[in-house]
Amino acid sequence: MSLQGLAQQTEADFVKTFGGEPKWVGAAPGRVNIIGEHTDYNDGFVFPMAIERYTVIAAAPNNLPRITLRSAAGQGVAVIDLGQPLKAGPKGAWSNYSAGVIAGFLARGLAPIGFDALINSTVPLGGGLSSSASLEVATATLLEAVTHRMLDPVEKALLCQKAEHDFAGMPCGIMDQFVSVLGQKDHVLLLDCRSRRTELVPFTDRSVAVLITNTNVRHELTGSEYSTRRKQCEAAARALGVPSLRDASAELLEQSRGKLDEVVYRRARHVISEIARTPLAAAAIRRSDWAQAGEAMYASHTSLKDDYEVSCSELDTVVEIAKSIGPSGGVIGCRMTGGGFGGCTVALVKTDAVDSVTKTLEKGYKAKTGITPTMFVSRPGQGATVLKPS
User: Fold this and answer.
1) Residues annotated as catalytic (active site), given as ranges
2) Closest Cα to residue 195, out of 35, 42, 48, 43?
3) In 3D, which of 380, 291, 377 has the Cα closest to residue 331?
4) Does residue 164 come out as left (phi exceeding 0), alpha (psi in the -120 to 50 range) or beta?
5) Whose CA is closest to 381, among 175, 180, 174, 119?
6) 340 near 305, Cβ under 8 Å?
7) Domains, in order of start, for the chain
8) Helices 153-166 and 95-107 meet at what angle, rounded to 10?
9) Which is more confident, 172 or 109?
10) CB neighbours of 309 closer than 8 A, spacing ≥ 6?
């Protein structure tokens, strides 16, 4: 479904739910990371793109000192009392993402009026395509319309990141929120997570498509394992005597190997090599050197599987099948994307081979796992936007 189609559906559902037309509609995309995994919280480089899957929020004033958030996906209703200090709800509650953003606006003196809102999304939940950041940024975008105050894009992304830290309890990096805010159609975003400098790299070659495969498995390890990996990276940086692993080199790591236990060494080896790979892959895509981009993606997956240990058998199966198809069959490169332990892979595929590649991947994956994957193609999508009033 297109963004406009999703917005129209959400507006129609809003009328059915609340009995009147919405005054505001805001939207923000999910994302897929082409390369640069688990580097953002190490001050490294990431290379994500906004996908053509969105969270849309339609809202209208309710003349009450509260905000009512209703999920169109049947996840229930959350009521936020604007007369009380905002606190996070139960751990894992979807409303925490929006509540944290509302708290960020209130902390800046940007108090919204009360409103009713309906939230609808085509971003797969739990697939590593950043449904949480999409919800956060869509909430912030809606609040910009409600308060008539546009935030600086970087401030907006950081506000949403803080919401995830403080209200959802996930110590995420800045990648997801940045690309959801700053993404542009037909461009991939190269982000330096230390300086926060961004570069939009054109992805206009229509002969190559981005194929996203959801393994439809989610191993419930992500929260604790994510935190553990982050602590291991911090321990490695301390042992190497650098502020973060962004400041380390492969040579320094090898020279200092005796200072690190084997697991921490391998975690650092992934991060240091991935930070080096990411701008090289971006440069390859900029000059349409698809072979080099594909090699970098496979190297990234191997490193994530063996050194960072955040892959799983289902993700590995998709990548193995993709590699067996190879360039002659239309697959340029493939890797896991997102936090890991399930979720999605991302592949660069020749556009004229998408149908055959999809069929081969689906058949092979189902034969090995018994699971039917969900697959879709996306061009780099548009970042956050206010659709109404427009």
Assistant:
1) 176
2) 43
3) 291
4) alpha
5) 180
6) no
7) 3-203+381-388 (3.30.230.10), 208-378 (3.30.70.890)
8) 120
9) 109
10) 266
